[in-house]
Amino acid sequence: MASTSTIMEETASALHSSGSTDVECHACVGMKRKAEQTCVECEESYCEHHLDMHNSLHVGKRHRLVEPNALLQGNICPDHGKMLFLYCRTDQLCICHLCITDKHRGHDVIPMKVEVANKQIKLGQLHKGTVDIIEAKQKDVQELRQAIEIFKASANKALEKNEKSFAELIQSMKNSQSKVAELIQGQTESAVKQAEGFIKILQLEITNMRTSGANLQHQELLSQTNNDVRFLESAVSMPLLTEYKRPYVFLVRPYNTFERDSMAVDELVEKLNKTSKLSLVTISRKVKNTRILTSPPPQTREKFLQYASKLTFNTNSAHEHLVLRNENREVKASHQLQIYSEHTQRFDCRAQILCNEGLRGSPKYWEVEIGGGTWVCIAVSYQGIRRKGKHRVLFGRNDQSWGLRCQHGHLEFWHDNKKTFSKCLSHGSKIGVYLDYRAGILAFYNVSNNMSLIYKHQTVFKEPVYPGFGLAGNGSYVRFCDPVKNETKTSLSSFSSL
Asked: Whole-model pTM above 0.90?
């Protein structure tokens, strides 16, 4: 495969030779002199002497003169013998003015120079996009290599600790020791092989895109010559350039190391023989979940629905200004106080509520419809979040919770009292929430706008998280959607009297 520099050198050589040949005067008899100008209408080139005669003969007539070109014949319409000054977008061909009333009647026709300019702009955009994607893939290659080294080092460290811990066990535990070592080594080989496979794919794609980029540069150089026909013929088919999206997600610590495995081994040593079988099952599960790469979030709503989870509000956590309806699947803020019994889990100063379900393990997905009032916060929180008083109790304003605040189309994401994201939502009141606990991913999607990503947050969850909601302003509401069934618009008229 030719290198980029070789292709560019060949291109430059070809362009230089195409414009260096002298054009002879068509009117000279015998010894031909060098032509100074070419008449487009006459389709002939003239030396200085015959050019004066031509101009005198055609006084008052608009004959266009251009630099003499040995390749002029290639710019002549084969059907009408006229210069090719126009471009038919319908047929993607260079044509003359007579072709408009002939084969190209009613077609989309523009001046050739306009199409050349358009193609040059598109070439520039394609070339820049190619360079950007190459740089992104090169960065991924570097990060993957670093991740592999960290992963291998962690695996080696885990193996060493595994050997030391199991050496303290009695003979009956040796089989378990071999099993753990086999799991770690197998998972390391599998994960490293997967990551190295991605490196090979990315390097091959980078090589192919460099070749494609060189071809685009070739066309750019060609577009700068006077040979517009040749350029447009070569530019009829341009490659499609799609946005580069990383086909995987890097796991963050401790999920891309074997630290959790080592902790489980210590636990196994403490419990000894009577708990060895149960601990071995735990170790096996944790080792298998230790990876360098994992699959990215789903791309379509149908795939998100595979992780759909049914959630219900925890009445014991509801603030007294929150009204629950529809089997605890709807909540609305109201000025009227509700009669709730005293409970340690209840929010007493903030209009907030948590769900009953603690989430961890495999990915989870749920959808809510929001509206009304001043703002609504869609959050996940640890169970131990502070419930009493006003100081940093709001979802997202402490290190115990993560929250997306939605206020009349303006969105903000908060965690540990820091705002890390802000944008405006063009339309839609239905929000989808995707949680990949193991990968540490919390993502929000605009369901009303074809599952467009609103914001994705990467973190490390240390304990189960509970979906929660904060509501501000009379009339603000949250309704859990049933994403499995075809939903019909549920009327909220039952809240109208509040």
From this structure: no
